[in-house]
Amino acid sequence: MADQYRIAQPKDYYRQFLEKDVRPDNRGLGEYRATVMNIGCVSTAEGSSLVKIGNTTVMCGIKAEVAEPGVDGKNGYLVPNVELSPLCSANFRPGPPGELAQVLSQNMADLIADSQCVKLENLCVCPGKLVWVLHIDLVCLDYDGNLMDACTLAMMSALKSTSLPVVTVDEESGEIKTDPSSRTLLPVSCCPVSTTLIVFDNKLLLVDPTSEEESLATGAVTVVTEGKNVCSIYKPGGTPLTDKQIRDCIERGFIRGKEARSLIEETLCSVDR
Amino acid sequence: MATSRICVPGQRLNRADDKHIGGKGTYSRNGFIYSSVLGYWEERPTNDNTEILISVHTGETQTVIPSIDDIVTARVTNVNPRFCKCEILSVGTTPLCDVYRGLVRKEDVRATEKDRVEMYRCFRPGDIIIARVLSLGDAQSYILGTAENELGVAIGMSEAGVSMVPVSWCKMQCPKTLNEEFRKVAKVRPEYIQTVHQG
Amino acid sequence: MAGMELLSDQGFRTDGRKPNELRRIRFKKGVFKQADGSAYLEQGNTKVLAAVYGPHEIRGGKGKALHDQLLINCQYSMATFSTQDRKRRPRGDRKSLEMTAHLKQTFNAVILTELYPKVQLDIYVEVLQSDGGNYCASVNAATLALIDAGIPMKDYVIACSGSYIRDTPVVDINNLEESSAGAEIIMAILPRCEQIVFIEMNSRLHEDHLSPVMDQVMTGCKDIFNILNQQVRDELCKKSAQDRIVDSG
Fold first, then answer.
1. CB atoms near residue C168 (< 10 Å)
2. Positive or negative, the Cα torsion across B62, B64, B69, B75?
3. pLDDT digit string (tens) for A75-87?
4. How far is residue A50 CA from its own chain's centroid?
5. What pLDDT sits at residue C218?
6. Which residues are CB-neighbours of C151 under 8 A, at least 6 positions away?
7. What is the mean pLDDT of residues A234-253?
8. What is the DSSP string of C26-62?
9. In what residue span(s) does the Exoribonuclease phosphorolytic domain sit (chain A) (predicted)?
């Protein structure tokens, strides 16, 4: 019976819970869902990971290819791509990538560029001749809100586990040789973590929204932190927030950042490489 | 439960003779009753006690689709002088995971004085209505009707955006502005009111 | 494949299996919440995910609706990182479209479509890691997802592949055997009534050899069926035992 009320009047349903500072799934307003991570689950990829935040599941696979560099001669390429297929939610239609998928792909690219976590010159194989192209494919398998955080977490943990084969170029013949037996780990200098909050009823801030909460939200904020630095703040319109509220968001971002980074480290340690 | 025997799709349950008939979750082929879903075996004599009904129940709510004569709950999305469009939210007490489109035509709104119905005085977008499925309709949507006392608007949204209180069979009052608005009000069954107040 | 023996003189295959041995099968039903039914299945190194949505209202072009039965919509896709070389198009290429059509035909034959007129059912299959037998793993995973969703079916559909190497029929072939050996036979069957729903063969095979391979594949299908069926039953058994504890406590 409560289910019917939830479908018919979702906002009222939520208000009754939020009055008592709790959400329908038993979380507090600032509480994250349980986060689970698995690294190195796809052996055909150079680096891979699976991240679950509550029900939201994202799989990341990184494939490396060699290509000719651009005019500067030494910078490699990182190409993130987020895929939201109809497999993960009934709201997505088959066909070319939708708006959300394109926005997320761009967000991921910006995140790498802003945080400088992977330096493009590190992807150089042979200056002027050969560089690495890393295709970072993020596939959403189950969509229950807060994709941004799940994607960043999946991407960073996959990057940290990525190892590239040693490639040598013969000076004279220009022949490319790969040695599959020896691999080097991709240098990742830092690990940005994003934290998403939504605004409910123009005043309450909820951390880590589910898809239902996202559909009721009047605004959203994403804070990306790295160590003690703020990497980016992204607030795509919606309800205006006060200075104090933004500060609260940033503070929450730092706490989450610390938790997430230690989770990545723990998982990396537990997986023998 | 003595009858909790597990059945899987394709499992042969019994001979389909004049004593046994297959119920929900089963199908018949070549004179036998087979299970079509994963669930538990259930045997029950039919009402006239002449046959035994064998069915397989899954223990979870089965996926339902609206069929003729079902009572459905729907949200009004669009009203025009001839009909109003709505999205069906639940069938009986089972919420649907995905909305189905429905249509209430002007002549199906009430049982009497059908020709004097004005759609805008019966439904407004955002209202939650209780209706009966009259037909599976065309390819576009299900045809719904509210021509019964128990059917019509259950929760009306006033112009101020608050849910209104019914004051008569054709009027509702907004608790905020005390404005009265016209609706085809449903005489809501007690159990429905209970839901709304429980949350 | 010079210098590489697909079947050694001792009768072992490249991955150490006997000719009639299946790869290890592991699966989990109901892995996702959004979908009405879902399953994850591993057959050796082939990892497949299947999700079922529906039955729900027809989407995109009402004209597709069938007035007396369910419309089944399939989509087969392979993750870009699932193969050795990166796949540029995860879906929509000819191979995927063919696979989509095959899946649709297979499941049209077993789902009791007449129970749901004018609505649609979606079956999505995603290959996460591919090591041969993609069709077989997809069919098996989708069967489990359909059971999880509670969609009425005539029977399980189980698929298995086979080949003929060095005068020996082999079953459940992997990527290496698929790409280098001669003939490949793929079969999808209803294991209880032993009916063949789908069969595909490519390359050449002497007619005398056909029936031993088919027999071997049939046995493989039944073995897979026994594994899946056993675990599905055990899980429900465990679940109902737990429910009873909750009820009485």
1. 18
2. positive
3. 889 999 999 988 8
4. 11
5. 94
6. B37, B63, C37, C52, C55, C111, C121
7. 90
8. EEEE---SSSSEEEEEEETTEEEEEEEEEEEE--S-G
9. 31-165, 192-254
What is the helix, strand, coil percentage profile of chain A, to 5? 30, 35, 35
Nearest CA to A63 among C175, C129, C174?
C129
Residue type, C62: K
Q: In what order do the strands lie in the sheet with C158-165?
A: C168-171, C158-165, C184-190, C195-202
Question: Does A269 reach chain B within 8 Å, measured CB to CB?
Answer: no
User: What is the average pLDDT across A45-67?
Assistant: 93
- Distance of alpha carbon C8 from the chain centroid: 28
As a whole number, the mean pLDDT across chain A is 89
Chain B contact for A19 (CB, 8 A cutoff): no
Nearest CA in chain C to B9: C155
DSSP label of B112: S
Summarize the confidence of residues A177-185 as an average pLDDT.
82
According to DSSP, the residues that pair with A50 across neighbouring strands are A38, A59
Task: State the Cα–Cα distance between residues C187 and C162, nearest whole angstrom.
Answer: 8
pTM, two decimals, is 0.87
Taking the CA of residue A11 and the nearest CA in chain B, the distance in Å comes to: 11
* Mean pLDDT in residue range C155-174: 91
Q: How far is A101 from chain C (nearest CA, A)?
A: 15
- The rounded distance, in Å, linking the Cα atoms of C110 and C189 is 10
Q: Looking at the partner chain, which of A88, A93, A137 has a beta carbon nearest the beta carbon of C81?
A: A137
Q: Which of B106, B186, B108, B104 is nearest to B153 (CA)?
A: B186
